[in-house]
């Protein structure tokens, strides 16, 4: 979007004004509810990941909490006014991604906006850090829709990334807290892990075979069209090498939520590839012997399991030019760098069941704390 058309600019300006008026009026006539919490879903219509763990912890710490779940479609239409109505007397709004209503209004001083963010560490650039790149938003648009505005609390996995998030969200560093990533609490709960693994093995019995080697592949999303970072597709590569993958290897492909249905259908046609849909990526990690990604921050969480990691990034230079990375990948990851199909195929075929990899340096760099994170986060934002 090089230049917003005049009518579109006028629409956004008028819409913002009406939304702000509605918010002000609703707030004026509705009594502030100190127990009301709005949780904004975006990537999924069900509670999962950080939001799910924080939701469960809120029920423990605030027994009388009045929790409202909203699914943010993030379109400037009449539906957004119903979300503004819910926000108008709330104490907290909690999100882990983009949420349009918050960016279009001037929030009241008694509303806390909690951004959990869906990614650990700071890997690929996002938000204001990408302005001026092929991938990023245009300044003209940000002047009208200041994305990531109004966060009062942002939680990150380490103090090393505070500067990066302050840049990405265009906000003060003193509102960014390196307490941790809520959903990694899963890995410290052995009973819960055993239950989840049991459910996966019950649904897919062949994954529990002692001879099987389960390799989880989870690439990040690549934008399309003019904002596309690169034209490379790990899905195409995987389909090409599939016939040569050892029979003992089971490929588990966890698609990014924005992956096209056509690409997923192409994967389903391959008997060597299991398209992972019924569980979260962290749950699939529990049954994975190794992990392959490109620039996905999920790699940091897999590092907590001390198993082999690889980055399939033949388009590294192009990606850095069109989007950019916050830090050098060799600093961030202990994973092996793969640059072509042969290297990927060899790495996959050489993996073993229950193989150990020392990712302790990687964990130390990307996490300041890895225990009881959810409890600490909820205590923090409810105590202020």
Description of the molecule:
With 384 residues, the protein is α/β, with parallel strands linked by helices. Helices cover 38% and strands 13% of the residues. It contains 16 helices and twelve strands. The protein has helices spanning 6-29, 49-61, 79-87, 100-104, 139-144, 162-169, 190-203, 234-241, 261-268, 281-285, 298-303, 316-322, 329-332, 341-349, 360-366, 373-383; strands at residues 36-41, 66-71, 92-95, 112-115, 153-155, 176-177, 213-217, 249-253, 273-275, 290-293, 309-312, 336-338. The strands form two sheets. A six-stranded parallel sheet has the order 2-1-3-4-5-6, covered by helices on one side. It has a six-stranded parallel sheet with strand order 9-8-7-10-11-12. The radius of gyration is 22 Å and the shape is globular. The model has no long low-confidence stretch (mean pLDDT 94).
Task: Please specify the SSE layout and strand pairing.
Elements: H1 6-29, E1 36-41, H2 49-61, E2 66-71, H3 79-87, E3 92-95, H4 100-104, E4 112-115, H5 139-144, E5 153-155, H6 162-169, E6 176-177, H7 190-203, E7 213-217, H8 234-241, E8 249-253, H9 261-268, E9 273-275, H10 281-285, E10 290-293, H11 298-303, E11 309-312, H12 316-322, H13 329-332, E12 336-338, H14 341-349, H15 360-366, H16 373-383
Parallel strand pairs: 1-2, 1-3, 3-4, 4-5, 5-6, 7-8, 7-10, 8-9, 10-11, 11-12
Helix pairs in contact: 1-3, 2-16
Number of contiguous helices: 16
State the helical fraction. Answer: 25-40%
> What is the structural class?
alpha/beta
What percentage of the residues does DSSP assign to strands (E)?
A: 5-15%
Unreliable stretches, pLDDT < 50, 5 or more residues?
A: none
CATH class of the largest domain: Alpha Beta
Across the major sheet, the strand order is 2-1-3-4-5-6
What's the N-to-C terminus distance? 41 Å
The CATH superfamily of the largest domain is identified as CDP-glycerol glycerophosphotransferase, N-terminal domain
Q: Any idea what the CATH architecture of the largest domain is? A: 3-Layer(aba) Sandwich
Q: Kindly provide the radius of gyration, computed on alpha-carbon positions and rounded to a whole number of angstroms.
A: 22 Å
Described by the principal axes of the CA atoms, the overall outline is globular
What is the number of E strands? 12
Helix/strand order = HEHEHEHEHEHEHEHEHEHEHEHHEHHH
Average residue-wise pLDDT: 94
CATH topology of the largest domain: Rossmann fold
Q: How many domains, in number, for the residues? A: 2
Give the biggest beta sheet: 6 strands, parallel
């Amino acid at each position: 979007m090089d230049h917003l058309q005049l009518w579109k600019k006028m629409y956004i300006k008028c819409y913002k004004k009406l939304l702000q008026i509605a918010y002000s009026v609703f707030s004026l006539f509705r009594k502030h509810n100190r127990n009301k919490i709005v949780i904004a879903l975006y990537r999924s219509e069900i509670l999962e990941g950080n939001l799910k763990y924080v939701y469960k912890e809120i029920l423990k710490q605030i027994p009388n909490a009045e929790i409202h779940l909203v699914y943010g479609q993030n379109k400037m239409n009449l539906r957004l006014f119903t979300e503004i109505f819910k926000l108008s007397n709330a104490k907290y709004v909690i999100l882990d991604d983009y949420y349009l209503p918050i960016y279009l209004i001037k929030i009241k001083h008694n509303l806390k906006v909690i951004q959990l963010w869906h990614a650990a560490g700071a890997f690929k650039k996002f938000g204001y850090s990408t302005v001026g790149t092929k991938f990023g938003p245009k300044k003209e648009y940000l002047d009208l829709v200041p994305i990531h505005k109004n966060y009062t609390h942002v939680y990150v996995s380490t103090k090393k990334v505070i500067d990066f998030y302050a840049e990405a969200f265009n906000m003060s560093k003193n509102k960014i807290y390196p307490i941790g990533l809520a959903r990694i609490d899963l890995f410290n709960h052995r009973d819960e892990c055993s239950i989840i693994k049991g459910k996966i093995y019950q649904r897919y019995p062949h994954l529990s075979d002692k001879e099987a080697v389960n390799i989880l592949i989870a690439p990040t999303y690549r934008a399309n069209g003019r904002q596309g970072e690169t034209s490379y597709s790990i899905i195409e590569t995987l389909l090409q090498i599939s016939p040569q993958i050892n029979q003992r290897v089971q490929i588990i492909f966890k698609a990014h939520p924005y992956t096209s249905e056509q690409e997923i259908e192409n994967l389903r046609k391959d008997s060597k590839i299991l398209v992972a849909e019924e569980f979260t990526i962290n749950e699939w990690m529990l049954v994975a012997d190794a992990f392959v990604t490109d620039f996905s921050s999920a790699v940091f969480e897999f590092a907590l399991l001390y198993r082999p990691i690889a980055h399939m990034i033949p388009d590294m230079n192009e990606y850095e030019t069109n989007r950019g990375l916050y830090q050098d990948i060799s600093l961030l990851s202990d994973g092996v760098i793969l640059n072509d199909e042969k290297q990927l195929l060899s790495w996959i075929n050489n993996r073993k069941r229950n193989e150990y990899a020392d990712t302790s340096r990687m964990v130390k760099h990307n996490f300041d704390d890895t225990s009881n994170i959810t409890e600490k986060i909820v205590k923090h934002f409810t105590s202020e």
